Amino acid sequence: MRMDAAAADVAGGGGSVPHTIRQGDIRMSNLKTVELRPFLPSKDFKRNKQFYEDLGFDIEPLGDDLAGITHGAAKFFLSDSYNKEFAEGLQMHLLVEDVDSWWARAFQVIPNYGGSLDAVTTQPWGMRDFVFQDPAGVCWRVAEEVTS
Asked: Does 108 reside within a domain?
């Protein structure tokens, strides 16, 4: 990692950053993570918010073009932005306790939005899951772990 002299001075204690930096040796005092929250695109922001609410997620408005979406420990942001290639290339994985209950809810909701919904399948990697796409084209895989 290359660092210019000014950055090294600040990082080395010349500023408010409490890290010791030596060339080739970076020491961090706290690498604890708090949360990972992806930003999902929406083709129609209002419709996408309603889609996730219909699936059982809680919606927290965070302005005109952003919403916090949560269900239990699962959290993500829904953004009023859209790029077709990005949306259709994005995959989300939701680990749940009861995939059959989630599939039943999805079966009620997804046809109202014109999306596709696969059947629950047992995967060789130890999961039972199903796949669907949200109204923006984001692929979701909802799964439960298979117990022996």
From this structure: yes
The domain in which residue 56 lies consists of 34-80+87-145
Tens of each residue's pLDDT in the chain, 148 residues? 444 554 444 444 455 555 555 566 666 688 899 999 999 999 999 999 999 999 999 999 999 999 999 999 999 999 999 999 999 999 999 999 999 999 999 999 999 999 899 999 999 999 999 999 999 999 999 999 998 7
Q: What is the CATH number of the domain that holds 126?
A: 3.10.180.10
The burial class, CB within 10 Å (0-12 / 13-18 / 19+), for 113 is middle
Tell me the whole-structure pTM to 2 decimals. Answer: 0.79
Tokens of 37: 């929250």
